[in-house]
Design brief:
Elements lengths: L4 E13 L8 H12 L11 E2 L10 E13 L3 E5 L6 H8 L7 E6 L3 E4 L12 H11 L4 H15 L14 H14 L4 E5 L7 H16 L4 E5 L3 H7 L2 E6 L2 E7 H10 L8 E8 L2 E9 L6 E3 L4 E9 L3 E11 L5 E6 L3 E3 L2 E9 L8 E10 L3 E15 L31
Parallel strand pairs: 2-3, 4-8, 4-9, 6-7, 7-8, 13-20
Antiparallel strand pairs: 1-3, 1-5, 9-10, 11-12, 12-14, 14-18, 15-16, 15-17, 15-19, 19-20
């Protein structure tokens, strides 16, 4: 059976010149023109570098996107994930025809409605109702078609009281509610959404994701969804694309794409650190973490195991190994201390298990302290490693991050029926 392809990207690349608009100089423009009239390739397409924000680079040209190729079938819900700077938003802007690619082409069959950031396509001086009609007209709908959907849009957005108020008076949450309602209910064949659901509250997230599922399943319409919220991506999307430095490095089922994304360690993250620090006949060799086979990134629903390898060249009457868990801003969250015990001569491994569902899905810094006979500090090693909690699954409707620096889940709750007297 042949595929019903509704959107196709062919060899899409996007180049920018740093600090400039366009080429920035007349000589560059003339050089490009001279190559063009002779049927030659643009000379500046050969000198760009990958868009790695962490390195300085040597070229003033960067590739925000390079050689992007993919197809999207009608009714498919495609998740696009990757770190900041991977090129996700640039790709959606090209797909939405907000900006043009440097090379390549986009082929689509049907209207594309985009929600790229809060208030995209809204005129702040117009009222909510006027912006609904404006957006519908941009999508090619008649006034009668828009009017038939008006009540549904207003009800879904929850902005009925303010629908005749200029949008510039709206909060960011109200604006994104209305913008999403317009994009979803005016029935485009392709709906493009970039991270905006993070602005909404839990109720709106649940409604929005449910609506996107409905329009893809029942309406046969296509959704392209960019988000850093892995839970939302997995709950909504069936297929996914993983981007890195402007290139697609994986396309396939959403679970395998997410697994690869989580397995690629962030530059800050370390899973093992060699220390080899000596003090008064005591050596700390290394500290490492392990958690269900994931290095650096740890699943918060699994036990987190710290291992510290040491050597003692002398007999110590009492020793404590202390681990301090801090935020990356330096705020202390908690410390854990090994029982005070006699330390024999030789090499040993100390292990500490942080129970599952203790830490949250954020970054943590780890300090290590070794104390002899109570007050004597042998080592006070700061910021030895950075680890990141990852939440791979969750039950319930709430899909946004839980607040807090830790996230214990075993507080006791009870429910008792109160009988009427």
């Amino acid at each position: 059976m042949s595929k019903d392809i509704i959107l196709k990207a062919e060899n899409i690349s996007k180049q920018y010149r740093l600090g400039q608009v366009g080429t920035g100089t007349l000589s560059h423009d003339l050089n490009r023109w001279w190559h063009q009239i002779r049927g030659k390739e643009d000379p500046y397409l050969k000198i760009g570098e990958a868009n790695d924000r962490s390195t300085k680079g040597t070229s003033e040209y960067v590739w925000a996107l390079q050689d992007i190729n993919f197809e999207v079938e009608r009714g498919e819900v495609l998740g696009i994930i990757g770190k900041n700077g991977a090129g996700k938003s640039t790709l959606l802007k090209i797909l939405s025809k907000v900006t043009a690619p440097t090379t390549g082409s986009i082929k689509s069959r049907g209207r594309i409605a985009s929600l790229l950031e809060v208030g995209t396509g809204f005129n702040p001086e117009l009222t909510g109702k006027e912006n609904i009609f404006l957006n519908g007209a941009i999508l090619g709908m008649t006034k009668k078609e828009i009017a038939s959907k008006l009540d549904e849009i207003v009800e879904f957005s929850g902005c009925e009281r303010y629908i005749d108020t200029p949008v510039k008076r709206y909060s960011s949450g109200m604006t994104v509610r209305l913008a999403f309602a317009v994009a979803a209910f005016l029935e485009p064949e392709i709906l493009v959404i970039d991270e905006v659901l993070a602005v909404g509250d839990a109720e709106f997230q649940k409604k929005a994701i449910g609506k996107m599922q409905d329009i893809s399943r029942e309406g046969g319409r296509t959704v392209l969804f960019v988000s850093h919220n892995i839970l939302a991506v997995k709950s909504l999307c069936k297929t996914g694309i993983l981007m890195e430095y402007g290139k697609i490095i994986k396309k396939g089922g959403i679970n395998e794409v997410v697994d690869l994304y989580l397995s690629k360690s962030n530059e800050l993250i370390t899973s093992a650190v060699s220390i080899e620090s000596r003090s008064n006949g005591f050596i700390v060799h290394s500290i490492s973490v392990s958690n269900n086979g994931i290095d650096g990134n740890f699943d918060i629903a699994e036990d987190l195991v710290f291992s510290i390898n040491i050597t003692s060249e002398r007999l110590i009457e009492a020793i404590n190994i202390n681990i301090f868990i801090n935020t990356i801003e330096g705020m202390s969250i908690f410390a854990t201390c090994s029982p005070e015990k006699r330390q024999e001569i030789g090499m040993f491994k100390y292990e500490c298990i942080i129970p599952k569902n203790t830490l949250n899905d954020i970054f943590y810094n780890v300090d290590l302290m070794v104390v002899e006979n109570g007050p004597k500090i042998l080592f006070d090693l700061k910021e030895l490693m950075t680890i990141e909690g990852i939440e791979s699954k969750r039950e319930g409707a709430w899909l946004d991050k839980f607040p807090g620096l830790i996230r214990p889940q075993y507080f006791e709750w009870t429910k008792t029926k109160i009988e009427n007297e």
